[in-house]
Amino acid sequence: MDTGEELAILKHIIGLGSQLDQVVLVYCLNDISDIMPEWNDIVARIYDDRLKQNWLVRNSYFANTVYYRLKARRDPDIANYYQFQLPAYRGPLWEQQKNRLRTLRSLVKANGGNLLVVTFPFLHASLDDSYPYRFAHRQLEEFWRELDVPHLDLLPVYQGLPPRELVVNQFDPHPSEFAHELAADAIQKFLDENLRS
Fold first, then answer.
1. pTM of the full predicted structure?
2. How many separate domains does the chain show?
3. For the chain, which terminal residue's Cβ has fewer other Cβ atoms within 10 angstroms, N or C?
4. Gyration radius of the chain over CA positions
5. What CATH number does residue 189 fall under?
6. What is the domain range of residue 128?
7. Counting runs of H as helices and runs of E as strands, what totals does the chain give?
8. In a structure prediction context, what are the per-residue pLDDT tens digits for the chain, which is 197 residues long?
9. Domain assignment of residue 142, yes or no
10. Structural domain includes residue 172
């Protein structure tokens, strides 16, 4: 989910009369994507393409997997996904994202909750000094500090580890079992330190 979907779900839960206590937002750097006009166009094109697939690609897991792996390498919108996200953390989109995150925090607080935030880095690339999103992590840290919201950035937890150990595989950049274990340990300590009683 992106920030827009998270806000909608939070409003829905509150609208149902649910009470809030401890709310942990797990923030991924691509949670800003939904306010990027060009990303919405790309997603629409990708889904439109999916409707035009032949029977074999639609009904065979193997053919579907091969098709999308080849597409990911050849389609510049997919191949450049991470670079595409960089500009969102600069200028008006970042200001818009901060406003949405402020709204989320205000909703939690106004409804009796306590917000905590955990930020995941993109794990597909080396998390060393060349990691291009380091500035976004600093911005998020500063933003949450200004709002007095406890924030755990997982970048230092993963820094220095090879990407191949942190992702599912070369085609799936989601966190591996090992990466989830590291995150779980760090998050547990963070929660122990910050959950109010």
1. 0.86
2. 1
3. C
4. 19
5. 3.40.50.1110
6. 3-34+86-194
7. 11, 5
8. 899 999 999 999 999 999 999 999 999 999 998 898 877 777 677 666 666 778 888 788 888 878 777 776 777 666 666 677 788 898 899 999 999 999 999 999 999 999 999 999 999 888 988 999 999 999 999 999 999 999 999 999 999 999 899 999 887 888 999 999 999 999 999 999 998 65
9. yes
10. yes
